[in-house]
Amino acid sequence: MKRNPTLIILMVIMLVNALSYGTIIPLLYPYAARFGINPLGLSLLFASFSLAQLLATPIIGRLSDKYGRKPLLLLCLAGTAVSLALFASATSALMLFVSRILDGITGGNISVAQAVLADTTEGKDRAQAFGLLGAAFGFGFLFGPALGGLLSQISLSAPFWFAAALALGGTLAGTFMLKETLDKSKRQPAKQPFFSLHGLTEALTNPLTGIILVISFLFMTALNAWIIGFQTFSNDILKLPARDIGLMFATFGFISIVIQGWGIRVLLNKFKHKKSILVGSLLFSILIVAPTFFIHSFVPFFVLVLLFGITSTPMNPVITGLLSERTKAEDQGGILGINQSIVSFGQIVGPLIAGTIATTSVNAVFPVAAAIMVAALVATKWLYIPKVMPVNL
Prior knowledge:
Growth Hormone, Chain: A
């Protein structure tokens, strides 16, 4: 791939952005609990962010087509900085929700960054550029939780102030280092609607893609239910300090980098897509229920998180890869956009299910999440294997 200065700048911005995100995620529940937020309230915090992001991201993408990439990317980064500062200085639960919604509304920076790369890379280099951007985000998520855990020793609000400063730094870096990549002659409002119900229905009824989209939704629902279960179990059952929670998230981030950089290729060479999803769904279902029956202290829980990371990390890339493999070249953008919407719905539904259950029993979250993954396992068994894949891939 040719040297691309824009890619280097974007990687720096995404690294800073991921550091800010990774710093706060493990600490959301302990911090929010100070304002009377219970497990259901935590799930609503997560869901409010995901819903705002779901609604705003396509609009931000279209606005970047009309007004240029740089102003929208800077707006998103600045919005994240403001939302984190608001969260750090919150005096009520309402301020926490306002902060998360604002962060969700301005949370389209990754999609705008991808558009910048699409403007500045050729087709043969684009996949590698996207991979490098993802790696930068992964490294940020590796070190962010560890930083958050250390800073929490000062105060629970310190990691959020630090994350806000990082986001502000990313905004300044973009202001002075990033050039506009979309020429004014190419700027125009997109003619397609932000969301097409017809396109969703068509994709779900297509034998090549329908079941895969269902599997994608079930996986993201179960994964995000587990995230709520993880936070409430760590905080309410095991009574772990923020430092230990940050360490586990950092370990998860490290596994993610290794698996995405090397493990997925090995997995697909050995099992192919369908068998990989079957094996992943089965192991996911078994591991996800373990805290209910076998975990009573930090060390076994840490080992479980390690195994869970190895099992769950390949699932989303494998599902997305299979979906892309079964889609014609001219339909790639549309079908992957539909999948992203379905993923976002899973990020809303999963926390709501888990939060509702956790108000009665934290331990009950894990069997329910496992049942959702069993449904994904059954759906994978129904997966249609065509003799001939779509042409023009």
